[in-house]
Amino acid sequence: GRLEAVTQQMGYHPQYLDSFLKMQHYLMHMDGPLPFDCRHYIAIMAAARHQCRYLVNLHVLQFLRAGGDPQWLRGLDFIPPKLRNLNEINKILAHRPWLITKEHIEKLLKISEWSWSLAELVHAVVLLAHCHALTSFVFGCGCEQDEGPGGRGSLKPLSPGNQCFCEATAGNGCSQELLRINRKRSLDSCMELDSLRERIQRIHVETEGREDTRLLQQDREEGEGQGRRWRCSDPSAGLSPLADTDGEVTGATNLACYMQDPDFGYQDFSRRDEDQTQVFRIQDYSWEDHGFSLVNRLYSDIGHLLDEKFRMVDGLQSSAMAKRQGCEPSVFKRGIWNYIHCMFGIRYDDYDYAEVNQLLERMLKVYIKTVTCYPEKTNPEMFDRFWKQFKHSEKVHVNLLILEARMQAELLYALQAITQYMI
Q1: Residue ranges of region Disordered (predicted)?
Q2: Of 147, 149, 154, 343, which has the fewest CB atoms closer than 10 Å, so is most exposed?
Q3: Is residue 159 included in any domain, yes or no?
């Protein structure tokens, strides 16, 4: 009955958690342009860019439960070309979203056997941005799994370990009804990794005695292109995708198989080629005036759910944090938000960026940049170290701001490129 760790951390801010779960449920499990198994595979690809085993393993299990082909879990070489073609914008959005152009969009939408529709692409873009940003939260709050003596799948203990997950910021105490609702609504909460290993072991046992991996791969290569539009699995395939050469089930150990060009990472926006990449001015293309309407038109209702989540994180109380810095809560939160967007080349003409250095201490800036730009380099000690005088719920609040600011930044670049393609 233990809640999934991300939900547990977000539970420090129950209203935001409710908004987050509604959006994620709609994105992953309700009617939409993409097949359900493909949604989870795209999530695997996105989480793998930041080496986030925690999210990869959760979505591997959900991929299998959705009827996904286990052969796909061997890596990008075993999936349909249509999905594999998404790798380039996955890589760029995860690390340097300012490089996205209308040419990337056009390449995916061009008429061919493996072309994407606009609606499918918007669904995929929202999925990628959501999962990239969620990896920042996972690493930022120490939810990433521990590869300790207990084996893969055990999570790092949360801090404080004996505190109720939904500590009420208003002092109302923990609501048992909220606990019940969140357990029911979080579709990830039951995704224990021992269950994942059992499922993979079952697949392995069922397929024991078949041709060895190399023959299967050879057969697949010879028959490539014979499958359906989305599902091009080899009917004879079936060795456990997560088994090693000796047949031992090890879990999702080799995340490299889910990505290409692993050395491609974040680069300071200031180091860009200025002849090709300009500063993104929010006055020219904003979520409120442009992104919201486009995404809602091509993927019905997701715009409203995303907008609610952005507004919810903006409305979270931060009076204690702001008071320590001697400013208004709105000023403090805007400083964090604009600093994150600045790292991705997004500028607000009406903002004085000198405020960032005045409002944010150096250690906090280092923490925010690490969690935002290369979350896989974050360690649990960083969460404990930064701003020791702050409560756990306040640190979670900072990570929620990182999650939402990063997601909106990726969406703005991708949706602007789609808009330019459409024009």
Answers
A1: 211-245
A2: 149
A3: no
